Every structure is written in C-alpha cells, then in structure tokens.
Amino acid sequence: MGAAPDIWLICNPASGSNDAAGLAALEDRCGDLGFRIAGKTVFPEEDLPDGAALDAAGVGLVAIFTGDGTINAVIGRLDGWGGQVLILPGGTMNLLYHRLHGDRPFEEVLRLVAAGEADVRRPGVIGCNRGVALAGLLAGPGTSWFDVRETMRDGDVLGVVESAAQAIGETLAEPGIACREAGSTEGYPLIMLTPHDEGIEVAAYHAETTAEFLSQGWALLRRSFREGPHDVLGTFDRLILASTDGAPFGIMIDGEKREAEAVEEFRLVACGVDLLATATDD
Q: Which of 99, 114, 238, 280 could connect to 267 by a Cys-Cys bridge, CB 3.0–4.6 Å?
C-alpha cells in the first residue's frame, strides 16, 4: 500500500452533515489513513478552487464533504480538470455518494481510496440548457414543494403551514408536464429524472386523489421522493419534457431551483471530471 495522496477538502457548514463534530471526525480519519489536507475551502464563504489553483498547489484529489447542490457547483467548476474527485456524505440525501459508494460508511470509503482500491469513473449524468444534474432532476409544478423544504430547514413552523398550502394549490391548479418520449400527452405535477450509466430513468408522480397527493406531499417533505405514488415511464438517452399549457416550468437540479422553457430537452452525457467509486454497480 502506497502513501495516501494529498487532498483538497471542500465543505459547506449549511449542508446536512457538516456540523463541527462531523467535520472533525472526517479530518481525524483522513489523518489516521495518511492523507494530508493540503488545502481547505469552506463554501460559500470562500470561492471554490479551479483546476489551475489545484494544479499550482500540487493537489490531484479533491474531497467534497457537502450536499448534492454544492457538489454540483464544485464539479461544474472543475469540468475538464485532469485530477480526481472523491464524493463524501456531507448532505441530507447524499444521492451521488450512494450512487458511487452504495451503503459503505465514509470511513470505509476513505480506507479504500487510501489503499488505491477505488475505481475511476465518469458516470452518466443529465445535461440540459439549465445545467448538469449529477444526482437527479425534478420538473413540474410539484417543485413548489422545494419552498416548503427550505422553510422546514429554517425551523419556521407557521411558514411551513403557509408554504405547504400554497404548494398544494399550485400543484393541483397548474397544468402538468408531459414526457414526449413516453408516448403520452398526459401532464404530471412532478417528473423525476434519475441518471444511470445506461440512460435516464423517468418517473412521473401524480395526484389523482387527495389522499394520494397528501401521501406524495409527505414523501416530498421528508425528501424521500421515490416513496410517492408514481408511474415509471421508461429509460432514455434523450427525452423532451413539455408543459401542457406552453408556459415555462420549474425544475430542480440536484436540489437547486431553476426555470426551464416550455419545451426542454434532457440528454445523457458523461460527467466532466473523474470521480472515485467503490460500489460495484451504478
């Protein structure tokens, strides 16, 4: 076993697992395994490093201990860089971490990386005009539940009630989103796109009855989108989502809210930087 490489650590105190104790445990584990933390960025207080800064520091490995949204920003910043990126579980859902490492604890992942036993991958991700989704993308009026999630994060109980009522109204009242490749013009309040190496899996969530919708809403509030009632529409290399009324619609790219055109194309592309993986399957 060779010496563990120097790393540049990026963290975000606002992410789900980034409290002082969690960060200290991570740094201790890195030291135990022989990693030297050659640089550290606390985002968003500090600017993210680019490839040139990392090369100048002699660092070829970046460890990202943040949520999926910040991971997206970092990988976008490093697109085309010749080094490697290690994703660690520093957020709430850690979707990309689980895709790359399965259910391994981060201590085991670090041990495998230090031993040189991790694989280098450029997994399939979702590209569109609004950005690149590494972990997943949500589209439709149902993305108004994002505001409920943010209010819950702030601990505003009254705000949760008000924003939840608004989200329900918007989701039931607004026209839905259709997937053209699925051969249906039916509109759904929420469509979830999940990238895999072999294609983009499309799941459509619906609200045909109040009870069904409330079940879906509770799943969204718990950030467990897959638990809501849904239809699996298929897996595609390229697909088009369109609003049924011709108006722009909301999307969430790795948890960050954006707005799409009335008709938007999504395609499977390769990640722009090498990621380390310890799981056997996508």
A: 238
